[in-house]
């Protein structure tokens, strides 16, 4: 519903503004104390976009948002070409994922559900607010998610868990992936029946998120900015999560995808 969409966005943005200001200040402070900030600012014009980003991060410049629906937690790095959804042909690694669909799906379905972690990526204040909203507006979908991580925050978790060695090998071999980036991750993602994730933006605008559709029941959709699409089994769907996006599963079965980042 439009009212639910508005309320969840408003609460999320309000919570994030408080957190972002503090977090960005801490990041810039660390950069300055270590000499990185002054080092970059003393470089030539080839570093102009990096300089501009640091000034946006420090608050010395105010961000100009070309698209109000693209509003990640951190300021957008300038000069990048953005689209809500990206063409699969832009990324050679997509073929490697799709060619190994059967193998990856087999390992995913063989996992015991105890191997999965409950999704806790939504902040406590937002969770409480959404709980209140869901009582006022019953159609607001509940958040019900489970994850099996391969990489989390740039760390190889599968080397410890060791449940899906073939899928892990494929993920590590992907050309152009950014799994060692601190906000990089690769996971099996299970969205439970009759659940959803409310409209939100991700942390930054550096990544393209890739979903390999493994098990997709009917009535599953993803909206990025103003475009809504569905997953096709065996195919990758790529989008930029710096845009406002939401997903929903209105079926009676779980939805299963492999998520990676480029």
Based on the model shown, name its key terms.
four-stranded antiparallel sheet; 35% helix; 262 residues; eight-stranded antiparallel sheet
Which structural class do you get from the secondary structure elements?
A: alpha+beta
Oligomer: single chain
Number of strands: 12
Reported for the largest beta sheet, the result is: 8 strands, antiparallel
Q: Whole-number average pLDDT? A: 86
Strand content: 15-25%
Weakly predicted, low-confidence segments: 122-141
Query: Secondary-structure element order, as H and E?
Result: HHHEHHEHEEHHEEEEEEEE
**Rough shape?**
globular
Q: State the helical fraction.
A: 25-40%
Rg result: 19 Å
**Distance, first to last CA:** 32 Å
| Structure annotation, total helices | 8
Characterization of this structure:
The protein has 262 residues and is of the alpha+beta class. Helices cover 35% and strands 22% of the residues. The protein has eight helices and twelve strands. The strands form two sheets. Strands 1, 2, 3, 4, 5, 7, 10 and 12 form an eight-stranded antiparallel β-sheet that branches. Strands 6-11-8-9 form a four-stranded antiparallel β-sheet. Helix 1 (2-33) runs antiparallel to helix 6. The longest helix has 32 residues, at 2-33. Mean pLDDT is 86; it is low at 122-141.
Could you give a quick summary of the protein structure above?
By secondary structure, this protein is α+β, with helices and mostly antiparallel strands. The protein has 8 helices and 12 strands.
